[in-house]
């Protein structure tokens, strides 16, 4: 205001000076008034312009302050800052002061915004790149970033984007693991089956063929699906190849056994036959399932089949001999000569299918083995019975030997054997009963007669039981007869007294274990009239001799005991018994 008053004073002084000049010039009052009015109008215009400029400047400052405050408010809202405009304004402050206070905060907020925008762009670019990799479009160029919403640059939104990024990174990691797992499985299967791994991978995706890993591998859903299909296909192919080789290996072993192939020749195919017992998961050898190996096995099978056809007659006869040996080992009926003649005639006629004939022979052998196995338990008991019967016969001969207690060579061994034989003979009835029940159960189960060397075993057992009973009855009768003789001799001695027995010429007895004809077994004579139960299969009833009744009279000597007579009778009766 002081400057304005000074300005007005200066203007008044100039106006008086101008009036003096006009007086000197001689201007009229009318001209003076007109020029003064003109000057006043010009001064008014100048002041008016100044006022308008001041108003405009004030308006600009107000607008700048308002825009600054609005931008600050928007930035604070977008950035999620905690500052408030109340901290910016000061009471009774001019517009310039307000603007001066806003500008530093505005610059700081703008800087923060740029930083936030860059962070958002970095995160979103990574998200977009990962999405392209997962979608399989990474090779098509850089990712197109979405339009950034600058109105929301808060930490909350940035955190959500970072969470999305972490999920995508985790998904990428899992996909890489799946890719590596599939590629590892494909490599192992390719090595086992001798397949070009690099070529197969390049066909799935070019990045998989880069073994140097100079380019990132594709992790798209399509690539993963292709890898999974290849793994499944290779596993199926591996299973099929293994099954082919197992069938070929089994065929090779069968042909080798049929053709008696040397071991050295068989060893060339150990890499094939060793796969027979392997499972799909345990086969890991390099190139062990290659097509070359399968072709090698096929060619060898073809060669052996040709050789087999030329030796088929020999093989059929060999199978027949094997069948006869099985029958013979278990005492089954087999007419070998007739079967041989029939087979030879059938083969020579050319009407028989040798492969089918050989297959039928294999079936017969299998059935014969099963039948023989079902007879095994009974045959073991038959062997025990046969042995026990033989020991029984030996024991009979031993007990008839008058020199069995002499101190001859091997006498103590015979005594031990006799003790064991008596124990075994006592078990014969239970052994027969058990064997008979076994045979009956077998015949009931099989629906056929149990033959032993072409004779029903039950018939043999029944015959042996009858014959043994007859022998026991005969022994009992002889013992009773001996008892009567001893009783009669004792009575005679009591009546007449003892008399010296007639003198007989001295004859040196042979020690136990010797015989006049040299037939001894362990010091005991062999009884050729008694055999084992299965040595003869029929019961002979015509060999029993008639026995004369012992006539007892007063003429018999008192001191005579007919033990030799009784012993002779036992011996004669035993010789009349024929074992089954």
What is shown here, in short?
By secondary structure, this protein is an all-alpha fold. It is built from 16 helices and 4 strands.
Question: Describe it for me?
Answer:
- This protein is 69% helix and 1% strand.
- The protein has 580 residues and is an all-alpha fold.
- The strands form 2 sheets. A two-stranded antiparallel sheet has the order 1-2. A two-stranded antiparallel ribbon has the order 3-4.
- Helix 12 (354-400) packs across helix 13 (411-426).
- The chain starts with a helix and ends in a 5-residue tail after the last helix.
- Residues 84-88, 500-531 and 536-580 have low confidence and may be disordered.
- This is Microtubule-associated protein MAP65/Ase1/PRC1 protein.
- Helical fraction equals 55-70%
The secondary structure category is mainly alpha
The percent range for strand residues is under 5%
Terminal-residue CA separation: 165 Å
Protein name: Microtubule-associated protein MAP65/Ase1/PRC1 protein
Organism: Dioscorea alata (Purple yam)
Furnish the topology, listing elements before pairings:
Layout: H1 2-25, H2 29-79, H3 95-135, H4 155-193, H5 197-204, H6 221-259, H7 263-267, H8 270-273, H9 291-310, H10 312-329, H11 336-349, H12 354-400, H13 411-426, H14 428-446, E1 451-452, E2 455-456, H15 457-496, E3 520-521, E4 524-525, H16 563-575
Antiparallel strand pairs: 1-2, 3-4
Helix pairs in contact: 2-3, 3-4, 4-6, 6-9, 10-11, 10-12, 12-13, 12-14, 14-15, 15-16
